[in-house]
Amino acid sequence: MISKASAPGKVILFGEHFVVHGVKAILCAIDKRITVSAQQIPENKISIKSNIGNFENEPTKPIEEIQSEFRPFYYLATKMIQENNANSGMEISIISEIPQGVGLGSSSACCVAAAAAISGVFSKKSKDKILQLAIEAEKTIFPNTSGADCTVCTFGGIMEYKKNEGHSKIQSEPKFHLVIANSKIEHSTKEVVSAVQDFKEKNELEFSNLCNEEEKLIEDALSCIKNNDWSGIGLDIKKNQEFLELIGISNEKLRKMIEVANNSSYGSKITGAGGGGCIFALTDETNLQSTMDDLKEYECFSAKIDYKGLDTF
Ligand code: PMV
After folding, report:
1. Share of the chain above pLDDT 90, in %
2. Which of 109, 227, 285, 293 is most buried, most CB within 10 Å of its CB?
């Protein structure tokens, strides 16, 4: 039996990095997906096929010896085979519409879709259980994850998220469009998060003040979202970008892209770890095309909120 699942990528609208240190974040899932298929095979091996490469190994290796991009899949496959006392290997294939390593949640979407597809070979599990498995799998590559990305990729929609408290969906369904532009500079979330930790240790008071400012900004943004106040959200996005500049996760190219995107959109900022990766700009029907035109020298696309989240079939 082939078990299949797909999960959406995500954009962090507000609060990346600060969320790792206990501040609330606002995230939304986007209509770009990763699909994972899994099936048992008689050979005693884990085999993975994806557009970033193929992998094959026996299911008995220590996880640290597995190449990081394949680790979550290997972790989930060996865990499920053991838990189900299955005398088999597993074949996994991955098809992705989400660019990798640029802050759009490709690794979290992979973990969520893989957790559902791989566990689904044996039995169907609840979304809460899948999320727990996905976060365990993500921790094999990024132990300090706040869990925010996997949560939004599982449940979809637009939500508030707080580490240790979990998520709460924003019930209004805002109809904005995001224009996402890729700097083509890959980043390592683990390295950028650790650079922010260094910044925090060296600038304790400044970091704590920024966390307080971010909290206030997010409360304002939540009320703007509920009122469909795009201009208000845009101003908050610009303010959040100033905070990200202060903690040192921006660079010349990202600043240039944001300046261009601010021309016609309501507001623009980095999404995700930064240091490279993507920026997004908030638009509606009136300025979607002009923002796409302004950003045409970069690889860019428009995205809407995905309300479905994890899908199994
Ligand atoms: O760049 P991404 O998609 O890996 O997003 C990371 C978001 C952080 O807030 C920087 C880390 C986290 O675990 O929330």
Report:
1. 93
2. 109
pLDDT tier for residue 260 given thresholds of 50, 70 and 90? very high
Does 162 have pLDDT greater than 90? yes
Tokens 């925090």 found at: 200
Query: Could you tell me if 249 and 263 are in contact, meaning their C-beta atoms sit under 8 angstroms apart?
Result: no
Distance 16 CA to ligand 1 centre (A): 6
Contacts of 246 (CB under 8 A, 6+ apart): 206, 210
- List pLDDT tens digits, range 191-211: 999 999 999 999 999 999 999
For 145-165, what is the mean pLDDT?
Answer: 95
Q: 106: Cβ below 6 Å to ligand 1?
A: no
| Atom of ligand 1 minimally distant from the CA of 142 | 13
- What top-level class would CATH report for the domain 177-303? alpha beta
CA distance 111 to 36: 9
What pLDDT is recorded for position 145?
Answer: 87
Looking at the DSSP assignment, which residues form a beta bridge with residue 167?
Answer: 161
CB 128 within 8 A of CB 151: no
CA distance 248 to 251: 8
- Domain spans of the chain, in order of start: 3-171, 177-303
**Fold match flag (3-171 vs 177-303):** no
Show the DSSP H helices in the chain as ranges: 71-83, 106-120, 127-138, 148-155, 189-202, 204-226, 230-246, 252-264, 288-294
CA of 40 to the centre of ligand 1 (A): 32
Q: Is the CB of 20 under 6 A from ligand 1?
A: yes
* pLDDT at position 41 over 90: yes
Q: Are 94 and 36 in contact (CB under 8 A)?
A: yes
- Tell me what pLDDT residue 134 has: 98
pLDDT of residue 70: 96
Is 76 within 8 Å of 115 (Cβ atoms)? yes
- Whole-number pLDDT of residue 146: 87
Q: Which fold has domain 3-171?
A: Ribosomal Protein S5; domain 2 (3.30.230)
